[in-house]
Write a structure and sequence with these properties.
alpha/beta, Rossmann fold, 7-stranded parallel beta sheet, 9 helices, 7 strands, 15% strand, binds NADP nicotinamide-adenine-dinucleotide phosphate
C-alpha cells in the first residue's frame, strides 16, 4: 500500500517498537500520518526507530517511551505519559512486544514458562486495559487494538509450550475484549504471523528454517512489513466492520 493519510490525526502506541515487526509498523504508520508513541525496553533501540520515522503530515510528532509492558504500574504511567505528550489519548494500539524462551517441555524451567506468559499474554492485557480505560474515561471513541499473536498458537511448535500457550491466550483474550469494548467503539483483532525475518527468528537454528521452508506454499519467510501492512489495514477505517478476528499472515503455512 502506498503512503497515504489513512491514519492522519491519530495517536498510535506501538510496543516492541524498537525492533522487527514493531519497528516496521511504526515506520508504516508514520508514513500514513499517525503520530507514534514508540515503546520498548531500551532507549537505544527506541532512538534508532524514532530517527527512521517521517513526520511531514498534519502536525505529526513521535515520542519514545521506555517501559516494561509486563509491569502494571509502568503501563499505567506510560499511557498517562502518552496522553500528556500528545495532548490526547491514543486510539490505536499495536502490541508487538514479545519474547521467546524455547525449550522442550520435558526440560522447560518454571521461570521460563512464567516469564513468557508474563510478557506476551499479561503484557498485552495490561496495555489493552490501560488504553481502553483512558479512552473510556475521556469519552474518546473509534479505537483499534491489534495484538500480535502467532501461527504457533493454532499449530503448536516443538520447544514452544510456553510461547504457543501465551499466543493462544492472546487470541481468546482479544475475542473477549472485542465483545466487551464494542459498545465503546473499540475494535480488537489479532494478527498471526508465520515465520518473519527479524532478530527473534535470527535465533532459530538454520536447520529448523530449512525444515520449515517446504511447508510454506509461498516459499519464503515473510518480512516485517508484511505484518505492518496488515496492522495498517486493521488500524484504519478500511477495516471498520472487522472485530474479534484473528488473521493469518503466513505465506500459506
Ligand atoms: P523482536 O525483533 O525480538 O522484537 C520484539 C521487541 O519487543 C524487542 O525490541 C524486545 O526488546 C521488546 N520487548 C520484549 N519484552 C518486552 C517488555 N517486557 N516490554 C517492552 N518491550 C519488550 O521480535 P519480532 O519478531 O519483531 O516479534 C514481534 C512480535 O511478533 C512478538 O510478539 C512475536 O512473538 C510475534 N511473532 C513474531 C514472529 C516472527 O517470525 N518474527 C512470528 C510470530 C509472532 P528486547 O530485545 O530487549 O527483548
Amino acid at each position: 500500500m502506498a503512503a497515504s493519510n489513512l491514519l492522519a490525526g491519530r495517536v498510535a502506541i506501538i510496543t516492541g517498537g524498537g525492533s522487527g515487526i514493531g519497528r516496521a509498523t511504526c515506520q508504516l504508520f508514520a508514513k500514513n500520518g499517525a503520530s507514534v508513541a514508540v515503546v520498548d525496553r531500551t532507549q537505544s533501540s527506541l532512538d534508532e526507530t524514532i530517527a527512521s520515522l517521517p513526520s511531514d503530515i498534519d502536525n505529526q510528532s513521535h515520542e519514545s517511551f521506555v517501559a516494561d509492558v509486563s509491569d502494571g504500574g509502568a503501563v499505567r504511567d506510560l499511557v498517562a505519559g502518552v496522553a500528556d505528550a500528545f495532548r490526547k489519548p491514543a486510539t490505536i494500539l499495536v502490541n508487538s512486544a514479545g519474547i521467546t524462551r524455547d525449550q522442550l517441555m520435558l526440560k522447560m524451567k518454571e521461570e521460563d514458562f512464567d516469564e513468557v506468559i508474563k510478557v506476551n499474554l499479561k503484557g498485552t492485557f495490561l496495555m489493552c486495559q490501560a488504553v481502553s480505560q483512558a479512552m473510556v474515561k475521556s469519552k474518546v471513541t473509534g479505537g483499534s487494538f491489534i495484538n500480535i499473536s502467532s501461527v504457533v498458537a493454532t499449530m503448536g511448535n516443538i520447544g514452544q509450550a510456553n510461547y504457543s500457550a501465551s499466543k493462544a491466550g492472546v487470541i481468546g483474550m482479544t475475542k473477549t475484549m472485542a465483545q466487551e469494548l464494542s459498545r465503546f467503539e473499540i475494535r480488537c483483532n489479532s494478527v498471526l504471523p508465520g515465520f518473519i525475518t527479524t532478530p527473534m527468528t535470527d535465533k532459530v537454528p538454520e536447520k529448523v528454517i530449512k525444515m520449515m521452508l517446504p511447508m510454506i506454499p509461498l516459499g519464503t519467510l515473510g518480512e516485517p512489513n508484511d505484518i505492518a501492512e496488515t496492522c495498517l489495514f486493521l488500524a484504519s477505517n478500511k477495516s471498520k466492520y472487522i472485530t474479534g478476528a484473528s488473521i493469518n499472515v503466513t505465506g500459506g503455512l
